[in-house]
Amino acid sequence: xxxxxxxxxxxxxxxxxxxxxxxxxxxxxxxxxxxxxxxxxxxxxxxxxxxxxxxxxxxxxxxxxxxxxxxxxxxxxxxxxxxxxxxxxxxxxxxxxxxxxxxxxxxxxxxxxxxxxxxxxxxxxxxxxxxxxxxxxxxxxxxxxxxxxxxxxxxxxxxxxxxxxxxxxxxxxxxxxxxxxxxxxxxxxxxxxxxxxxxxxxxxxxxxxxxxxxxxxxxxxxxxxxxxxxxxxxxxxxxxxxxxxxxxxxxxxxxxxxxxxxxxxxxxxxxxxxxxxxxxxxxxxxxx
Amino acid sequence: xxxxxxxxxxxxxxxxxxxxxxxxxxxxxxxxxxxxxxxxxxxxxxxxxxxxxxxxxxxxxxxxxxxxxxxxxxxxxxxxxxxxxxxxxxxxxxxxxxxxxxxxxxxxxxxxxxxxxxxxxxxxxxxxxxxxxxxxxxxxxxxxxxxxxxxxxxxxxxxxxxxxxxxxxxxxxxxxxxxxxxxxxxxxxxxxxxxxxxxxxxxxxxxxxxxxxxxxxxxxxxxxxxxxxxxxxxxxxxxxxxxxxxxxxxxxxxxxxxxxxxxxxxxxxxxxxxxxxxxxxxxxxxxxxxxxxxxxxxxxxxxxxxxxxxxxx
Lengths: 288, 313
What we know:
The complex is a heterodimer. By secondary structure, chain A is mainly alpha-helical. Helix content of chain A is 74%, strand content 0%. In chain A, helix 4 (77-113) runs antiparallel to helix 9 (190-227) and helix 5 (115-130) crosses helix 7 (148-174). Residues 1-6 of chain A have low confidence and may be disordered. By secondary structure, chain B is mainly alpha-helical. In chain B, helix 6 (127-141) crosses helix 9 (181-207), helix 7 crosses helix 11 and helix 10 (210-217) crosses helix 11. The two termini of chain B are 12 Å apart. The relative contact order of chain B is 0.14. The chains are: A mainly alpha, B mainly alpha. The A-B interface holds A 24, 123-124, 126-128, 130-136, 138-140, 142-144, 215, 219, 222-223, 226-229, 239, 242, 245-246, 249-250, 253, 256-257, 260, 263-264, 267-268, 271-272, 275 and B 14-15, 18-19, 22, 26-27, 30-31, 37, 134, 137-138, 140-146, 149-150, 152-153, 157, 247-248, 250-252, 254-255, 258-259, 269-270, 273-274, 281, 285, 288-289, 292-293, 296.
């Protein structure tokens, strides 16, 4: 009976242990680290310049000099995939970070104030939530113009409502708790109660959602680039590369296959980590 | 039941107005003059003024807003700036294609997802459950244009079982179905992955409830417990997810239509983006709003069918 020794373990350590015990989580973490490293180290790892054209090597299949082949302009696909990972990661990380901060703040304040204002804010969030996120992103980017910042704005906008919801729900219960009342009795400001005392209690839930939404953000960025609303060429993006590959699908199928695998791997890895985090922190599963 | 439907319809009205307001705000909030965006930098000031007048942009904002609301609610979604035809008729011309695709995808998603989810839940942590979990995780992670292109490469270009071009002749049922198979599978598999997950976890949750134990204890056969007591209660979250999923389905159908070169709302959107058909984009957003509100209404009504308690609440 080894369980007897685990009695005094803190919930955090128990969550960490369960998180690591799950093999899919482990694989997900390793994959995420690999993709992140390959994007960060792209200048060192890439065998060629990602935007340098070589007309003679146009559409050449995978070979020793070009392990994943070349595209229509003779650019090395492997180097472009390594560099393209940077755009995917930068856009999705910033968009989700912004959505967590803005959406989280809206949800917390709304839940803390309560009453009619809360009702109104949540109605607006429901409306935002009910709108198809890809269509919303697509129209925002189309109206603002496709560039890195506008992509972040569009993808962040589609993710604000879910974070507002996830942050609001626990605040409704927490604001009735004794420690909040104690804070008020001590004369703390609302901002201090909300962001110093309530925030730490909801942080894990919000961050778990964040990792799952990262996967969605990567997918949305790739989809928008595939439609032609991504960061402008010649900057390599995975979705943009899929678009080029799709146009040359009869002559050079590898152009679509390799970036497709890259997108799939990153989204899969993020989903695995998100799932593992959620299972590890879910109080319902903890009770089992 | 009729009372329930009327009550839901009344409840849907404010949502519709709120969504329409959102569309109005999004289109107006964008910096810059839409007339300038449409006509480009080279346009003369006269041309811009004329277009602003045509779009109604020269009038006070509240007037524009109420006119937009009134027009939308009476079914007037505007006319395309490029073709000059009403947006309703542009959309009506291709809507059968999009409905074919999304309808078939929903059927595939439900027909695969619900049974697999139940099966996995009943065999928790066994090989079948692990396989279902891995496959659904994979299905959720595939961006639909990636899986679409992969399927296209395999089944249309390599094995040549299905056609590459998806412009089906609607009058010919064989051609219509033949060209629908690959796109519908592409779109349906992602949905099946979602539904498998939700069905599995809903089923697991319900099967751990006390009333299931009671039913078992009083001697109800296991089969009846699963199908009558378990599934019926597990269906509520599943229907919720199917309803919420429609938003994702609409987005994914745009990508699928591009990959398989099918006519439909997706191609209209992309065409409008390329031609800067600002009126068309706004009209399409309004149409999507109506779609979403209708789907939410259907979801609510389905609750009433599955769970009699909802109707009387």
